[in-house]
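Hey all, sorry for the wall of text incoming. These are the two entities for the joint prediction.
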Amino acid sequence: MKMTPELKKAKENMEPGKITSSGFLGEDTREIVDIIEKDEEIFKNLDLNFDEVCEKLQYYLEEGKKGLGEPITVDGKYTVKIDEARGFLPCPFEDGIFRKINATLINNENNEKIIYSELSLHLLKKHHFCQGYGSEFRIDPLIIKKIL
Amino acid sequence: MSSVLIAPLVIGILSSVLAALIAVIDGIVNNYGEVNISINKGRKNVKVKGGSPLLMTLSEEGIFIPSACGGRGSCGACKVKVLSDVGPVLPTEAPLLTDEEIKSNIRLSCQIKVKSDIEIEIPEELFSARQFKTTVESIKNVTHDIKEVRFRLENPKEVEFKAGQYAQLVVPPYGKIKDITQRAYSISSAPSQKNYLEFLIRLVPGGIATTYVHQNLKEGQKFDLVGPFGEFYKRPTKADMICVAGGSGMAPLKSIIYDMYENNETDRNVWYFFGARSLKDIYYLDEFKKLEEKWPNLHFVPALSEPSEEDNWKGETGLITDVLNKYLKERIKSPNGREGYLCGSPGMINACINVMTSNEISEDKIYYDKFA
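and here's what came out:
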């Protein structure tokens, strides 16, 4: 995959201070295409499917909303807490806007934790972009494998 | 001179000339000179240098419009009514404006630039919002993820606000965060404490301001606040107040309840439902129990949604909406009518509104602050 002008623009949008203060890349200095290709490879090696992962994470986000802002136990082994803030965030690929709703999902059996937002799920499903290493909202496939 | 040298030299000179030309044209085209902002039909007029977003221009003049995203156009909090023609609604504004707001000329002040004389309308109370220089007086853990932070006001030294209102914390750049970030939090202290502002701040994973408060903020540190803002405050009626909160949503209701107690408004019935998951998430329990003893018309009803065995909890259990529904149907008789006061996540507020309206509290009598 090449760094097209659209991807270059998306990378600019992912920098700290553009859409969110901390950005989407964390400490990662790789090009977006390299991040995507590497994570696609890890997904494949771990026998994970982007659509299925998104569907499950969306399910826990919806179940978490039933806690009305407090942590809630879901399916007996997960703790989900939903935090909502005012407004919307645009996708750095400029193909949608998303409410500021974050989910913290913890697998109580192994204490593995992941934080994701509605925007994170869109980035994962539509663009196969898990976010850079060090981004607090990175949906790391290795952690996903341990959690789900 | 060989052509090998001449070509780069010519290109260099041409580039420099072009750059200078662009700078001159930019100075002419984008120099809007001095423009006038007329606020609320001339109640206040300010002369400013044109060219900057309205939000920032106003704040430089000491007029603070609430904003939770620092002007990035993502929160939609900085809405003002613009009576002059400033061009069509921008694509960056449209998702955050309703059709009704667009028809009423409501715009995001962070997105529109002041390029010529402009007439706007803002809520009158925004004239009293100030930037406060403060010192962090104390930071206490009230639960495992909520801190009570108390700021001593240095300049100005006093604040006037209505119990229930909020202020914005001005978080300085830290770590990877290169910009100043402003976030809104409800004031938890009573208005009688004019030299202090207190807040209850729950750690939000990934949250810029809450992470700063929980990990970086220190007692004795200088810190800026902007406010007060907000329409969430007690209405002066005799109706029973049905208050519901969870987590840091405690803040404005604590301020309102203590304000009422201090002003001897204790003949009014106040029911305060506070939802938490387990005992470790609940706080100020003893404080409100003591207040209940002194104020018989105050009824504090804490409820745990998932108490653990070791909690040995004898109080109400279940989601706060279920407990609220039970009390509204079976326990609360209100000859003077009822008003709802809610503070918490949008999901919690929407669920509480449904319960209240199904128990004959009309929606126009339900007041809320969704973003404590």
